[in-house]
């Protein structure tokens, strides 16, 4: 029997596969298609996700394939009206070295994650369509379209907004329409536009078309908000006609249509993120507007949260109740993400400090234990900032599947003699996912917390 079956080889499933592989957990990623997803859809990587990728050992490769967000160039009747910045600037400091979102097509992010998974000994089984599952006290049996089945101690549904696993579990989703208009996204190659701007072509009726150059490729991502009564034409000719309709370009200027999809923006949340031995992660748990680049990033952090907890239970002897904190922590974050992405979509919140995800944390979690009488800076539940202690960079010290203690020494824990001044006074126990789990004036009383998390 496998330890974990992960359904879906998107960014969520691959991230979880990497995290489990480096913890020595036997996991298999299952993918219905015969290859990785081919489109650029989730192209924005927020600073917090960059920190996660630093820990997982892929950030340098990701950054080499990425680019910055260009200013938006507004067009009207073939004339340039002017530029708009995409984001409010977030100032970098020692604790927050990554503050600028990066742009990289989703297919490339998945290629990098897939290569890292294979490097760590992980596996993806393609053409494995899940049709149902049953679970008992010992494990979960997953059935496939070809009549075969596999069994594992736990299953994670990372199979998207139309999750077959979620439907098989009977877990509902509650949500709302964000925008009544149909939207279309495509990857195209074209002539006639510079690659220094994100080109926007608004129409008088509220519809619009955008063409965004994708770093490291010859492609542009096309995004279109169509009139409410429009029926999207997903053919190559339909895309060419759309470009000719909204821009000063001719249909023939679109030299290739590489991928296309349509959707109607909605925000929805699964009623539960856990049902017995099955967990929901990524779009299987929360569906969102793409505005503000929140969804893919939140999904990756779902996996990052769940990975260390599954590892602790399966390999370190942590109590099974630790897994309940996945829903406790991640569902609350998903609620906040859905509200934010909807507000960005409707123009109520601008991209910037609110969207980079550096301020998200778990202050209300049962795993966040703050025992200090005075805590005016970093508190239990906060993201643990970067910094330097005795010449050691904290993000490098945190890197890997372990806990890190700052400001004291406890047998069996990786320890540094102090925390940077930016943390404030105290002793800080940093979780494997880079959040402060326990904080105290001294290390006295930490033993009870260590028992809860299996240390």
From TrEMBL:
Q: Which SUPFAM superfamilies match?
A: FAD/NAD(P)-binding domain
Q: Which residues form the FAD-binding domain?
A: 2-339
Keywords, comma-separated and alphabetical: FAD, Flavoprotein, Monooxygenase, Oxidoreductase
Determine the domain of life of the protein's source: Bacteria
GO molecular-function term, one example from the UniProt record: oxidoreductase activity, acting on paired donors, with incorporation or reduction of molecular oxygen, NAD(P)H as one donor, and incorporation of one atom of oxygen
Family matches, as InterPro entries: FAD-bd, FAD/NAD-bd_sf, RIFMO-like
Pfam entry (one):
FAD_binding_3
Q: Where is the signal peptide?
A: none
Per its UniProt record, the required cofactor names are:
FAD
Q: What is this protein called?
A: FAD-dependent monooxygenase
Q: Which organism is it from?
A: Streptomyces actinomycinicus
Organism classification: Bacteria, Bacillati, Actinomycetota, Actinomycetes, Kitasatosporales
């Amino acid at each position: 029997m496998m330890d974990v079956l992960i359904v879906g080889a998107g960014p969520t499933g691959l991230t979880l596969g990497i995290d489990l592989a480096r913890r020595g957990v036997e996991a298999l990623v299952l993918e219905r298609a015969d290859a990785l997803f081919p489109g650029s859809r989730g192209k924005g990587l927020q600073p917090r996700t960059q920190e996660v990728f630093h820990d997982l050992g892929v950030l340098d490769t990701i950054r080499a394939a990425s680019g910055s967000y260009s200013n938006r160039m507004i067009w009207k009747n073939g004339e340039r009206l002017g530029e708009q910045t995409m984001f409010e600037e977030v100032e970098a400091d020692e604790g927050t070295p990554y503050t600028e979102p990066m742009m990289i097509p989703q297919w490339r992010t998945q290629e990098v994650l897939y290569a890292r998974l294979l490097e760590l000994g992980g596996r993806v089984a393609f053409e494995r369509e899940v049709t149902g599952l049953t679970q008992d006290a010992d494990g979960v049996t997953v059935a496939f379209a070809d009549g075969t089945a596999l069994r594992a101690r736990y299953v994670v549904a990372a199979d998207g907004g139309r999750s077959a696993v979620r439907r098989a579990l009977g877990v509902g989703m509650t949500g709302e329409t964000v925008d009544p208009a149909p939207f279309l996204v495509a990857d195209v190659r074209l002539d006639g536009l510079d690659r220094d701007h994100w080109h926007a072509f608004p129409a008088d009726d509220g519809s619009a078309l955008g063409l965004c150059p994708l770093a490291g490729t010859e492609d542009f991502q096309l995004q279109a908000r169509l009139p409410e009564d429009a029926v999207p034409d997903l053919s190559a000719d339909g895309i060419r006609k759309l470009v000719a309709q909204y821009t000063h370009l001719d249909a023939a200027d679109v030299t290739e249509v590489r991928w296309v999809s349509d959707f109607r923006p909605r925000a929805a949340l699964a009623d539960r993120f856990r049902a017995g031995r099955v967990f929901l992660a990524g779009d299987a748990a929360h569906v969102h507007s793409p505005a503000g680049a929140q969804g893919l990033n939140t999904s990756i952090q779902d996996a990052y949260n769940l990975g260390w907890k599954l590892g602790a239970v399966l390999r370190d002897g942590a109590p099974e109740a630790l897994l309940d904190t996945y829903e406790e922590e991640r569902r609350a974050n998903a609620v906040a993400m859905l509200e934010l992405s909807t507000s960005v979509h409707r123009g109520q919140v601008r991209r910037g400090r609110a969207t980079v995800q550096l301020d998200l944390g778990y202050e209300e979690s049962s795993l966040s234990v703050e025992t200090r009488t005075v805590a005016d800076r970093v508190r239990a539940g906060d993201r643990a900032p970067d910094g330097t202690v005795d010449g050691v960079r904290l993000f490098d010290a945190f890197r890997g599947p372990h806990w890190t203690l700052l400001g004291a020494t406890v047998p069996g824990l990786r320890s540094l003699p102090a925390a940077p001044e930016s943390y404030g006074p105290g002793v800080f126990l940093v979780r494997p996912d880079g959040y402060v789990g326990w904080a105290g004036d001294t290390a006295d009383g930490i033993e009870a917390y260590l028992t809860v998390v299996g240390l």
